[in-house]
Amino acid sequence: MRFLLFxxxxxxxxxxxxxxxxxxxDNMLVITKSAMPxxxxxxxxxxxxxxxxxxxxxxxxxxxxxxxxxxxxxxxGMAACTPKK
Length: 85
Known about the structure:
By secondary structure, the protein is mostly helical. The chain has five helices and no strands.
């Protein structure tokens, strides 16, 4: 009986919830800042970070989608994270 309980607890602990919305938004901000054309240096999307994190949480994205956005390397990579309809 103890063995079954131990196995059940190990199985529950291995769930991967993906990256947090904080990590997702931080990566998105890095990408969008690097993609801004010259002359737009003063525009700082980081001022809206809290709202972006709140929106991420509200959308209840899957772990896979958050993982995709958190590891994207460019705008095209972020676009590829959008679920196909």
